[in-house]
Write a structure and sequence with these properties.
There is one protein chain. The protein is an all-alpha fold. The chain is built from five helices and no strands. The protein has a single domain, classed as nmb1532 protein domain like (Four Helix Bundle (Hemerythrin (Met), subunit A), Up-down Bundle), CATH 1.20.120.520. It starts with 9 loop residues before the first helix and ends in a 9-residue tail after the last helix. 24% of the residues are buried. The structure holds fe (ii) ion (FE2) (2 copies). The site of one fe (ii) ion has 6 residues, from helix 1, helix 2 and helix 4.
């Protein structure tokens, strides 16, 4: 097994993602160089897409079997709204000030969503019914796979060959 057991708990992995993404948003606020901001905006969007996909594919489907489906639906709807903002940021080529505004709205949205997950959803999933270690390992594998795919996409785009993005 490539990871220690304690590091593979699905909820801990997702909470670590939350903290890392929040740190990226804080870093964005401090930047002044627009090229660096644009690069970090892309990095934030990729991290969010990877995180949301892991939750949607590997956690939410199991969660809705054991807890109130309404909570899971809220999470899915919020993810969809985030994806719309992400498309505005990454594919609609916003001007610098517009991108700053979109990132600000996205960060507020993510902040609210994370609070909902960590305060309401995750505690209900920590009861021991789910095999959080196995889910955690699957999340780590999917994260790696998606990160590699995003890396390849950005390399293609850098040489002027746009490729279809996933999700
Ligand atoms: Fe989420
Ligand atoms: Fe999350």
């Amino acid at each position: 097994m490539p990871h220690s057991v304690s590091r593979c708990n699905a909820l801990e992995i997702l909470k670590k993602d939350h903290r890392e993404i929040a740190a990226k948003f804080r870093m964005y606020e401090k930047l002044e160089d627009n090229d660096k901001k644009q690069e970090l905006a892309g990095d934030i969007c990729n991290a969010l897409l990877i995180h949301c996909t892991c939750e949607e594919e590997l956690l939410y489907p199991l969660a809705e079997k054991i807890i109130d489906q309404g909570l899971v639906y809220i999470g899915e709807i919020e993810h969809n709204s985030m994806r719309e903002l992400i498309i505005n940021i990454t594919e609609d080529a916003p001007a610098d000030k517009e991108r700053d505004a979109l990132i600000k709205v996205l960060s507020e949205y993510v902040h609210t969503h994370v609070k909902q997950e960590e305060n309401e959803l995750f505690p209900l999933l920590a009861s021991g019914v789910l095999d959080l270690q196995t889910i955690g390992i699957a999340i780590l594998e999917l994260k790696l796979k998606m990160a590699e795919r995003f890396r390849i996409i950005s390399e293609f785009e850098a040489i002027g060959m746009p490729v279809a993005k996933m999700n």
